[in-house]
UniProtKB/TrEMBL annotation:
Keywords on record: Cytoplasm, Cytoskeleton, Nucleus, Phosphoprotein
Complexes and interactors: Forms ternary complexes with the chaperonin TCP1 complex, spanning the cylindrical chaperonin cavity and contacting at least 2 subunits.
Thioredoxin domain span: 80-163
Subcellular location: Cytoplasm, Cytoskeleton, Microtubule organizing center, Centrosome; Midbody; Nucleus
CDD domains, per database record: Phd_like_TxnDC9 (cd02989)
Protein function: Significantly diminishes the chaperonin TCP1 complex ATPase activity, thus negatively impacts protein folding, including that of actin or tubulin.
The keyword Phosphoprotein belongs to this UniProt entry's keyword annotation: yes
The organism of origin for this protein: Copsychus sechellarum
The encoding gene: Txndc9
PANTHER family: THIOREDOXIN DOMAIN-CONTAINING PROTEIN 9
GO cellular component terms listed in the entry, alphabetical order: centrosome; cytoplasm; midbody; nucleus
Name of the protein: Thioredoxin domain-containing protein 9
Amino acid sequence: KMAADTPVDILQKVLENEILQSAKVVEEHLDAEIQKLDQMDEDELEHLKQRRLEALRKSQQQKQEWLSKGHGEYREIPSERDFFQEVKESKNVVCHFYRDTTFRCQIMDKHLTVLAKKHIETKFLKLNAEKSPFLCERLRIKVIPTLALIKDGKTKDYVVGFTDLGNTDDFTTETLEWRLGCADVINYSGNLMEPPFQSQKKYGTSFTKLDKKTIRGKIYDSDSDDD
């Protein structure tokens, strides 16, 4: 008499069957694509090739246009006046309002430098909060560091301190990338429903609690230990 399948055996068989079914669907899709290409005549193939070349050319043109407007690098702008000009000429802008003496601004700088090179569709800027009191007041920036996330000339969202980034100093670049993706200010290819910091094993163990200090005489608080 054969032994009955255990729940584990049954689950394994179900999974194997699902994997086989998925592989079959992919294979059928590929077969259909190959058959479609086989049935194309020379004119149709040439037309397809030209369409792809045109798409590639437009993509390259767009890339050059972005680079000419200062995308692809993380840079500091000297004044509030420059901010308005920079924002006007680009669809997606991330602007870091920083302060020289705030340690956490340096952490933000490190991640933004990486993301500026990766996401050339977005302009990455930094502006000294102490030199831009009008903007800080207008944008209600009270915590340093703050990222203003701007789309089509309008401030759409803010990343204030590190609260949205796992509330820790050692958040990853991927976590900041995810947060910018949530605001649709970069082309994000990951899963917006799963913040990267939730899957980090160290999250919750090596945890740095942020505190907010008031800077007397300033219009903003500092999210810094100033050490």
